[in-house]
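Hi all, long-time lurker, first post. I run a small reading group and we've been trying to get comfortable going from sequence to structure in the token notation. Rather than ask abstract questions, I figured I'd post a concrete chain and ask someone more experienced to write out its structure so we can walk through it together at our next meeting. Sequence below, copied exactly:
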Amino acid sequence: MKYRTLFIILILFSACRDADEISFLEVQTNPSIKSSLSYTIVKSNIKITLPSVCLNDYEFFFLLNDSLLFCKDGFKAPNKIDVFNINTAKYVNSITWDKAKFPFGTGSFELKDSAIILNAVSSSKYFQFGLNGDIKKSWNLLNISSIDSSTNNLYPALYPTYFSYSNPIALDEDRLIVSFIIPESFFLNEPMIDVAMVSLSQGKIIVKYKRHPDLVYAQMRASAYPEDLSFAHKTIVGDTLILSYPMDNFIYGYELGTGKLLFKKPMILSSSIVSLPQPLSRSAYNNEQDKWNFRITTPFYEPLNYHYKTNLYTRILHHGIDKETAKKKDGPLNRKLSLIIMDENFNAVGEEVFNHAHIGIYRIIPTSDGFLSLPTNNPEFMSDDFLTISRTKIIRK
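-- Answer (accepted) --
Happy to help. Here is the structure in token form:
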């Protein structure tokens, strides 16, 4: 009888818990250098004179062929993309579209097959523009996800579509790799699918990339991270889709065309960071101030980048800071981040430490041999007359 009573107590305790304890966050993956490769970091700045039609307040970027940089503002000039040649350091032209035909606020974008795929802010609507600014096609992902009866609980990424890391990846004019957020899914007792391939012409999901059971987000039942720290980052290398997450120490490789899991690899934590923080309890998650404090202080990962000329991977891990430092005027600029460099098998090659004054948060534009960055809140990079871009090359020896 006493065992039965104990069993009931344990069930009740589990059902009423306010937070999770996830062991994978505490696992320190070995940050020691295991690869015999060596490299050199070369830094430089690109300074481009801005014509009067350009406002140096860009938030979204797309780099074409390591040459043409497409830059877009989200609010001050939401119907315009400015194009710059980073190799000649010159302004090229601007692409504009009629506000009356496109009354939405606009967020991130990408180029595919001489067309611009653009999303509307806080909306499930996506548009394809020609390079002359004409709208060619439009889609509503709500219609696509509702057609597949097995995905009734899936909804497009409505909350943070403003951010580039949640934007769909266009494989071609028909197929998109889409991130989903599932409202209240943090507190459901079942694993959810948060990334899928959709066919626009068929109007349905055609490939699902199921969450790995070890994924931190798959283990959360009574707790959650803020929404903008809960999306899968998507990286495509050849026929492999690699999913990574802001608050998870592993990366997950899938066969792009089938959704089959190919590998789970440990990421390399910074040598100065022991673990990632536990998710917020249910009560803290429902407190906006607690969520904000978590956002501005927590360490977290940015997307994984592949650099095909050097056959190296890189990923940024932002270091955590205390709340008082985060609130200071120059606090965010002095915050540290680690650039983790890995070989083709994800073995650590090196770690380079920067501060936010030279890179910023989600301001990385990957290149074939390194990255560009346009940090914010740094007077060196903020000018009405010039667009200054930080360029970092990783030269593999």
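A couple of things your group might point at:
The domain at 24-396 is CATH 2.120.10.30 (Neuraminidase).
Residues 1-17, 153-162, 183-191 have pLDDT under 50 and may be disordered.
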